Amino acid sequence: MKRKYTEAVHAKRVKQVIEKESPYKHCPAGEGFCRGCVYVLWTDANNPCFICTEFIGLKHYTPEGEKCPCHRLGTKRAVELTWRKLEEKGYL
Q1: Which listed residue, 26, 50, 61, 75, has the most CB atoms within 10 A of its CB?
Q2: Torsion angle of alpha carbons 42, 80, 54, 4, nearest 10°?
């Protein structure tokens, strides 16, 4: 059964991803945190990507197309911003 991907769901899952050794190799919305498997678990296939990028204050679309925060900002910066937002929003 597919579920709705919400900010709260993202916060829980992204925390697990950024604690991994190589966070850029994983996706918080992916089945088994697998990149590219975002469409399997959630009712709205595009919503997880919007929530993920907008969670840390980025616009989802860029002139270069859709890109994950780790690829747009570098893993270190994306992880730093994510931790900050998790704290600011009360998820930690």
Answers
A1: 26
A2: 20
Q: How would residue 66 be classed by pLDDT, with cut points 50, 70 and 90?
A: low
CB 81 within 8 A of CB 57: yes
Cα–Cα dist 50/7, whole Å: 10
Model confidence at 68: pLDDT above 80: yes
Q: Cβ distance 52 to 59 under 8 Å?
A: no
Instruction: Say yes or no to pLDDT of 65 above 80.
Output: no
> Would you state the structure tokens that stand for residue 15, as one six-digit string?
């925390």
H or E stretch including 62? strand 61-62
Dig out the tokens for 74 from the structure: 């570098």
CA distances from 15 to 9, 78, 83 (A): 10, 12, 8
Phi and psi based region of residue 62 (left: phi greater than 0; alpha: psi -120 to 50; beta: remaining): beta
